[in-house]
Amino acid sequence: MRMDTRFPAIAAFCNPLMDVLSYVDEKFLSGIGAKPGTMNLVDLERADEILRRISAGREEPRVLPGGSGANTARGFAWLDRDSRLPQPLFFGAVGDDDLGRRYREGLERSGVRSGLVAKAERTGFSVVAVTPDGERTMFTHLGACRLFGPDDVDFSLVVGARALHLTGYMWDTENQRLTAERAAEVAAGSRVVVSLDLADPFVVTRYRDRFGEWIPGRVDLLFGNREEFALLCGTRESDEAILARAAAFAPLVIMKVGARGAYVAAGGRTELVPGISVAARDTTGAGDSFAGAFLFEYLQGRPPAACAGAGNRLASAVVTVEGCDYGAVAESGFSAEE
C-alpha cells in the first residue's frame, strides 16, 4: 500500500479536464483556423462544434483524464509505486455529473489523493487534435474549472506539503489566480518548495506582465519550453541568452528544448541534459510528465541534472503512447532507471 499521511508530497493545483483525443491532419487545423501545437480556450458551443467536426468520419475519440497539473501528479504517483513518498494531492473543480465522478475515480486509481470539489456546471474537457507528427492542438472548455476558488481549498494541507506545484493555466480566471497566489503565500510561509509550469505560449502571452511581477521571489522551480521562456524573457536569441534572462525569475530554471532535452540553470551555471530520441506518436502530456518525474527525483534530494534526466526519460516514453497514459507506458516496458 502507498504511504498515506495527512500531508502530501506535492500539492498540485490546475484544471481537471477530460481529454478527448482524435487524430487529424494539418488541413483540418487550417480549416478551423487553429495554430498547431497551441491550447485554445473556447466556449461550450465552439468545443462541441469542433468535437462534432473532429468525430465525423473518424474513429471514436478516446477519452482520458487530463489537465496539466493532474498529469504531473499522476506521473509522480506512478513513479512512486513503491511508496517512498506520501501521495500527491490534486486540487480543482469538476462538475456534479457523471464525467466529474469518472474523473475523480480515475485520479484516485492512479494513486493521487483527490482535493476536487463538485460544482453545478459541466465538467471541463479538452478536445485534443493530434497531427501525424505527434503534435497536439487543444481546444479547451473550462466548464466547472472556472468556479474553483480559495474557499474550496484546505490550505493547511499546503502548509505540510513538501512542494506546491502550480501551472500558468490557473491565471485564466480571477478566482483561480487568487487561489494559486494564496497557495504560494501559504507555501512561502512554511518554506514549502514552489514550482510553476508556464504551461503554454499563449498563457505566457496573455499574462507576461503579471508573471514578470509575480514569479520572482515566489517561485523556486520554474518549468517551461523554449518558446514559453522566449516570450517571458522578451528575447528570441540563443538558448544561452534566454536562460541568462530567465535566471532573474527563479533560483532553478528548467527549459525544455524538445528532442534535444532540457537545460537546467541554477547558481550561475547552465547545463544541457540530452534528450532521448524516439518515434513520437502523441506529445500530449509530455511536459507534464517531465515535471512529475523531475519533482519526484528532486524531493528525494537528487541534483537538478539528474532530475532533468528522469524527466527526459518519462517524457520520451509518454510521447510513444496515445495520450498521457502511464498504464500504456508501463506496458511498453519503460524503466525509470538510468
SS element count, helices: 12
CATH third-level topology of one domain: UDP-N-acetylmuramoyl-L-alanine:D-glutamate ligase
Order of helices and strands: EEHEHEHEHEEEHEHEHEHHEEEHHH
In the CATH hierarchy, the architecture of one domain is: 3-Layer(aba) Sandwich
What coarse outline follows from CA principal-axis ratios? globular
**pLDDT below 50 for ≥5 consecutive residues: which ranges?**
none
* Tally of DSSP β-strands: 14
Distance between the termini: 25 Å
- Helix-strand category: alpha/beta
Strand content: 15-25%
Instruction: Write down the Rg.
Output: 18 Å
CATH superfamily of one domain: Ribokinase
Query: Strand order across the biggest sheet?
Result: 6-5-1-9-10-11-12-13-14
> Whole-number average pLDDT?
92
CATH top-level class of one domain: Alpha Beta
Helix content: 25-40%
Folded structure, characterized:
With 338 residues, the protein is of the alpha/beta class. The protein has a domain at 10-14 and 68-114 and 148-324: 3-Layer(aba) Sandwich (UDP-N-acetylmuramoyl-L-alanine:D-glutamate ligase). Helix content is 37%, strand content 23%. It contains twelve helices and 14 strands. It has helices spanning 26-31, 44-55, 68-79, 98-109, 156-159, 174-189, 201-214, 226-233, 239-246, 286-298, 304-318, 326-331; strands at 10-13, 17-23, 39-41, 62-66, 89-95, 113-119, 125-130, 136-141, 163-167, 193-197, 221-225, 252-256, 261-266, 269-274. The strands form two sheets. Strands 6-5-1-9-10-11-12-13-14 form a nine-stranded mixed sheet, with helices on both faces. Strands 3-8-7-2-4 form a five-stranded mixed sheet. The longest helix has 16 residues, at 174-189. The model has no long low-confidence stretch (mean pLDDT 92).
